[in-house]
């Protein structure tokens, strides 16, 4: 396997795509914070020698061990090292010091797909078709690699500088090629709920065997969210969300019950409006029999819940960042207004993805069936990743002055302290 150019494995082993290098935090200029987790911080950094930029995920060893997440970290590192696909954010290298583990990830300058949906209210249909098609290509690769992601959602899909999607966060993934000893602990059951409530498939909640169609269910949820502006299964609590999923309770715009489900916040009509990116939803995790567990832990300690989400291998924004392109001369794209239109072909595809029986979902047996759906008519699959991407709203550049005044300065001070402590360890 070819290692990152200029970097060699510290033990001279050539079997790693992402070598275990002898770098330290002092070898980087830290440019700004990208994201946070309960035991990790992700920041944009430039390697001093090469001048290359990376999204560095720094994980505190003490917190990793205290939360018993060592196997999850090993699982993510092992899986990422096997991947070589344009639709997956690349792991370039890893290193460590006495207090922290570091993963040098590909920096994706366009930020999260979630931010595009959140700030624009919803996406134009052609953008939905483009992003959904790129997710199909990613899922095809994962199936060939014998991996189920298990936490497919807009927050875990990043935009490259030219606007193409890249998937992150494989700590909760199931790799069927891994020997039993290398899988994360607690896998005696058929499956377990690890991921985000709004996108988890019904078979996971019902403790049925895990299979590739679990990610197809999440794709159906994302297509709905991109068109409507919110996930199809969303309620006031995790428990109620699970109930909606197991009952397959959702409605399309114009159907009875759609208003009762809650309209997206921006469905009031009016002229097109220009917005910038920002905002994010939280993450949830549970164990087997997740519906019952969610009912018991409503109102539970938020820090413990966050630790669980991180335990699922959350990249906490790893690889996200600012800058980016894909925009016209004005550097802005319009926020959509007016009634939501859910085309018939999109509705048919969503229905066939959000099928309760995993084996009955479109693409469950053959992903070519999914490619051939009328919703993707006109998609040039061979040229999709090489062609132009939809325009997007670039996020704030990490480390750049923000609108939060002292709050932004406080974040920079905290990051500076973390990096200084790491450099002195």
Automatic annotation (TrEMBL):
Comp. bias regions, Gly residues: 308-329
Pfam families: Pkinase (PF00069)
Residues reported to bind ATP: 57
PROSITE patterns per record: PROTEIN_KINASE_ATP, PROTEIN_KINASE_DOM, PROTEIN_KINASE_ST
Transmembrane segments: none
Keywords from the UniProt entry: ATP-binding, Kinase, Nucleotide-binding, Serine/threonine-protein kinase, Transferase
Region: Disordered, residue numbers: 251-336
GO biological processes: intracellular signal transduction
Origin: domain of life: Eukaryota
GO molecular function: ATP binding; protein serine/threonine kinase activity
Catalyzed chemical reaction(s): L-threonyl-[protein] + ATP = O-phospho-L-threonyl-[protein] + ADP + H(+); L-seryl-[protein] + ATP = O-phospho-L-seryl-[protein] + ADP + H(+)
Family designation: Belongs to the protein kinase superfamily. AGC Ser/Thr protein kinase family. PDPK1 subfamily.
Protein name in UniProt: non-specific serine/threonine protein kinase
Biological source species: Chlamydomonas reinhardtii
Phylogenetic placement of the source organism: Eukaryota, Viridiplantae, Chlorophyta, core chlorophytes, Chlorophyceae
């Amino acid at each position: 396997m070819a290692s990152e150019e200029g970097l060699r494995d510290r033990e001279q082993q050539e079997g790693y795509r992402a070598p275990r290098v002898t770098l330290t935090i002092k070898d980087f200029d830290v440019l700004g914070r990208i994201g946070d987790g309960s035991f990790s911080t992700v920041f944009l950094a430039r390697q001093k020698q090469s001048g290359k930029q990376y999204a560095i995920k720094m994980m505190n060893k003490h917190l990793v061990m205290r939360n018993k997440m060592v196997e999850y970290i090993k699982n993510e590192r092992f899986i990422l090292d096997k991947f070589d696909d344009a639709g997956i954010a690349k792991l370039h290298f890893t290193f460590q010091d006495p207090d922290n583990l570091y993963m040098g990830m590909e920096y994706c300058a366009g930020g999260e797909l979630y931010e595009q949906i959140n700030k624009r209210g919803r996406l134009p249909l052609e953008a939905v078709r483009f992003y959904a098609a790129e997710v199909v290509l990613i899922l095809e690769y994962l199936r060939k690699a014998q991996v189920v992601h298990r936490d497919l959602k807009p927050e875990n899909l990043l935009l490259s500088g030219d606007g193409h999607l890249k998937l992150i966060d494989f700590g909760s993934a199931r790799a069927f090629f891994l020997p039993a000893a290398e899988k994360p602990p607690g896998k005696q059951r058929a499956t377990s709920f690890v991921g985000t409530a709004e996108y988890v498939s019904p078979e996971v909640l019902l403790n049925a065997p895990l299979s590739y169609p679990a990610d197809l269910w999440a794709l159906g949820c994302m297509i709905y969210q991109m068109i409507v502006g919110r996930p199809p299964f969303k309620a006031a609590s995790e428990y109620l969300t699970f109930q909606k999923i197991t009952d397959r309770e959702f409605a399309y715009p114009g159907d009875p019950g759609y208003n009762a489900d809650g309209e997206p916040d921006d469905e009031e009509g009016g002229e097109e409006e220009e917005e910038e990116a920002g905002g994010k939803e939280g993450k949830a995790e549970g164990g087997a029999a997740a519906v019952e567990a969610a009912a018991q832990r409503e109102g539970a300690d938020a820090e413990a819940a966050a630790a669980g989400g991180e335990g699922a291998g959350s990249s906490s924004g790893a690889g996200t960042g600012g800058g980016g392109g894909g925009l016209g001369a004005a550097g802005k794209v319009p926020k959509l207004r007016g009634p939501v239109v859910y085309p018939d072909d999109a509705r048919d595809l969503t229905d066939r993805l959000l099928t309760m029986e995993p084996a009955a979902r479109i693409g469950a047996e053959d992903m070519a069936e999914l490619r051939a759906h009328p919703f993707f008519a006109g998609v040039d699959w061979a040229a999709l990743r090489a062609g132009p991407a939809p325009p997007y709203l670039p996020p704030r550049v990490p480390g750049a002055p923000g609108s939060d005044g002292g709050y932004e300065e406080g974040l920079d001070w905290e990051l500076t302290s973390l990096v200084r402590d790491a450099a002195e360890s």
